[in-house]
Amino acid sequence: MNFGLVLAAVAAVALDRLLGEPRRFHPLVGFGALAGRLQALLNPPLTQGDPATRLPGLIAWMLAVLPFVLVALWLRSVGGVLQALVDVGLLYLAIGARSLSEHAQAVSRPLAAGDLAQARARVGWMVSRDTTQLDDSGVAKAATESVLENGNDAVFGALFWFFLLGGPGALLFRLANTLDAMWGYRTPRLRYFGWAAARIDDLLNFVPARLTALSYALCGFSRAATARALACWRAQAKAWDSPNAGPVMAAGAGALGVALGGAAIYHGEVEQRPPLGEGAPPAAADIDRAVALVQHALWLWLAVATALGLWGLL
């Protein structure tokens, strides 16, 4: 592994830990606005039920993502200091470890203090399900699931593609993941238009998700937790709708020793989801334990990358 990439990754993670996400003018906000305009232009109401809308969806994805990635590749090709700045800057913008922790704590703290209304409101920032009727356990479950899944989406997926392709790889993953979050729903409006965004995200996430699941298992808080995480991954992941969220969340729930999955309300309809993990339903403290699991896995990734980078220097 290129040791320069390792140093850039460490610098970007340090920046994220020190600064968090940009508070103003975050590039992803502008990207989201662009994606919204492309959707309005290429997915008009009259054609939303037509399977042929998959092609405009693919074209929209390409128009939204490829120009930025190509510009990043061109800037990086200059080399030298500019290459380092592109790598560090793009990975810093692509990862969100500190933001994930902050969102989780905004749920766990009021939940632990007995402020269920505030906890419901804040977990609604993290998940797409209806949170207005959740009890304490339901709030903790939703937040824990989000932390585990977004550990892959907001941290490890970006790191994986960064180590393969540098800053442009992290940018590609982050933009593709953002479009999946915006378009990748099986609603009447997006069922066909969002097909390409969902499938591309599945493809880009396939390897990172399994490495994330393995990291969660290895970073379990005991040898028994690691064994349980691997067993849950093997037995439960295939029943989950998402081919990538299943391994990540099953292994994470197993490592934490909590029971996730079950009923949840999406877009006004109750969805019965397969069980994940093993143990009692999560409580407020388990949200913080999930954050700690992601953080330990992040240190593991950086340690392995550093060892591989040093090995490449020998």
UniProtKB/TrEMBL annotation:
Recorded protein name is Cobalamin biosynthesis protein CobD
Main subcellular location: membrane
Q: What role is this protein assigned?
A: Converts cobyric acid to cobinamide by the addition of aminopropanol on the F carboxylic group.
Query: What UniProt keywords apply to this chain's record, in alphabetical order?
Result: Cell membrane, Cobalamin biosynthesis, Membrane, Transmembrane, Transmembrane helix
Q: Which organism is it from?
A: Methyloversatilis universalis (strain ATCC BAA-1314 / DSM 25237 / JCM 13912 / CCUG 52030 / FAM5)
Q: Could you tell me which pathway this protein works in?
A: Cofactor biosynthesis; adenosylcobalamin biosynthesis
Q: Where in the cell is the protein located?
A: Cell membrane
Query: What is the similarity comment for this entry?
Result: Belongs to the CobD/CbiB family.
Q: Name one GO molecular function term.
A: threonine-phosphate decarboxylase activity
Corresponding gene?
A: cobD
In terms of Pfam families, this protein maps to: CobD_Cbib (PF03186)
| TM regions (residue ranges) | 58-75, 82-101, 154-176, 297-313
Cellular component, GO annotation: plasma membrane
Question: Per the UniProt entry, what are the Gene Ontology biological process annotations, in alphabetical order?
Answer: cobalamin biosynthetic process
Going by the entry's taxonomy, the superkingdom of the source organism is recorded as Bacteria
> What membrane topology term does the record carry?
Multi-pass membrane protein
